[in-house]
Amino acid sequence: MSDPSDPAIGWWRTFVGADPPRTAKLAVVRADGSPHVAPVWVALDGDRLVFNTGAGTVKGRALRRDPRVALCFDDERPPFTFVIVRGVADISEDPADLLRSATIIGGRYMGADRADEYGRRNGVPGELLVRVTPTDVVAARDLAD
User: Fold this and answer.
1) Going by CATH, does the domain composed of 7-140 fall within 3.40.50.300?
2) Residue 128 above 70 pLDDT?
């Protein structure tokens, strides 16, 4: 386990924020204690990771009940690199925040020319804006070298 601000793994933000973007795998805890993993589009907002999800999804319900999360980002090509961010999620349903974040995230994954389209599609009532404050980061690069 490492402090997210540790200079030895400070490169994790560059990896997570790279272009083209990587889809994160989000892990949450279901009501019965079992894990649930699902892909999410993510953006960096300062030191926090942000994503949107539906309030009624497994992810949305789990986050309301237990804010602990883990997100995994990886490069599946040799020499292989990964970043796992564990943290605590904060949820917002503020319409302006939702639209702003959904537009940024949509533009990141679908291109600037479609950012507004995805913002209007995903920044709507019934969606949640999730901000994750990292508590620790595990990261390794060039594993096959």
Assistant:
1) no
2) yes
